[in-house]
Every structure is written in C-alpha cells, then in structure tokens.
Write a structure and sequence with these properties.
Elements: E1 18-21, E2 27-35, E3 44-51, E4 54-59, E5 63-77, E6 82-86, E7 90-93, E8 98-114
Antiparallel strand pairs: 1-2, 2-3, 3-8, 4-8, 5-6, 5-7, 5-8
C-alpha cells in the first residue's frame, strides 16, 4: 500500500497575486497561495502576501507567523505596544489578537496561518 504524499511549492519572487480579502470582505493587499488546506479538519494557510503603503485594522483570526522578505511593517496592538518588522524579521501572533497594521514601505512576506 503506497501513501500519497502532498507537496506544495512557491517561489518568494512570485509574480501572480490575487486580492487578499479579510473576514469582512475588505481587500488588504494581495496573496499568492502556497496552500489553503490542512489535514484532519485543521486550518492551514500559507503563501506570500504583499501590500502597498496603507494602514488597516487586522484581527488575527488564527495563529499567524510571518517572515519579512521586503519592506517595513508596523504592528500596533490594543495595549498600545508596537513592533516594527523589516527584511529578515519573523513575527508570530496568537489567534484573537487585535492589531492595526501600517505598511510603511511596500511589504512582501511569507506567512503561515493555522488553528
């Protein structure tokens, strides 16, 4: 009996993006999906995200980790604390965290989201 092995591949210099819609249907940047499904009923999303300079509320609907590959991003939390991310930085936030994102310089990052 052979086991099926799923593989996913995406380059960080991807050219084909599609609109990225948050839970309320608002477009926030663009995404190139690496994968959009998990296993055993669990959520797992991964891909490249990019966004031009802007500011918007961003509630973390799932656990999210990202690696910055381009640009400058500021993430401000409800308690007033703020982190700035640049190329090479890695951020990780837990599900339920409310934040406001400010894209200072056009951002591209690799993200993984799961429940």
């Amino acid at each position: 009996m052979s086991e099926t092995i799923e593989r996913y591949r995406l380059r960080t210099d991807v050219k084909d993006y599609e609109p990225f819609l948050v839970a309320d249907g608002t477009q926030v940047g663009e995404v190139a999906w690496l994968r959009k499904s998990g296993t055993e009923g669990r959520s797992l999303l991964a891909g490249m995200w990019r966004c031009e300079p802007s500011t918007f509320p961003y509630p973390f609907g799932l656990h999210e980790t990202f690696v910055m590959t381009k640009g400058v991003l500021r993430v401000k939390l409800e308690d007033g604390s703020e982190e700035e991310y640049v190329v090479g930085d890695i951020g990780s936030y837990v599900m339920g965290t409310n934040s406001t994102w400010t894209v200072v310089e056009t951002v591209e990052h690799l993200f993984v989201v799961n429940d």
